[in-house]
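Board work, copied verbatim: Peptidyl-prolyl cis-trans isomerase
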Amino acid sequence: MIVSIKGLVKHSIILDPGVWIFDDRKLNLDTYFSEERPADYDASLEQLGKAWSEQRKGARPPQTNGNKITIDKKDLTEKSLGISLAPFISNAAPTTEASIVEFSRGETREVFQCSLEEAKNAIVAFSNKGKPLRETGPLHFYYGDGSNQKDPITYIDGITIK
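↓ predict structure ↓
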């Protein structure tokens, strides 16, 4: 259940949605699209801001290897979870010619395309009610504005930047 990002990128990336349950950037899709956010909202910046303010409170942080894993059992068993696609696209470093993102869908190799900007704003789901998306996954695609919240693009198993 791995997904690759390839194409007009400097770095091809392999994604394993199964480990995103441990990622602090994960989003609760049951509430994400109904929450009020500014137009230029970036969830990763909010996480960074929280970490910075905690560090500035005066307490010296304990020495660790920097790998804090926090899991709420409710996340594992009840919530539908997703993650922003932006940091993964950024890490792949699309070339200047890149403008389209193509998502391959299942064994039929059917494709779905959107602009690079739409993909950067997108959320990809990796679990539904605490269960991995084995039947219709490994990923579901949601536009960042939630316009396809009731009907996500399903069966995504590959991402090619063109």
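Residues 51 and 65 are 15 Å apart (CA to CA).
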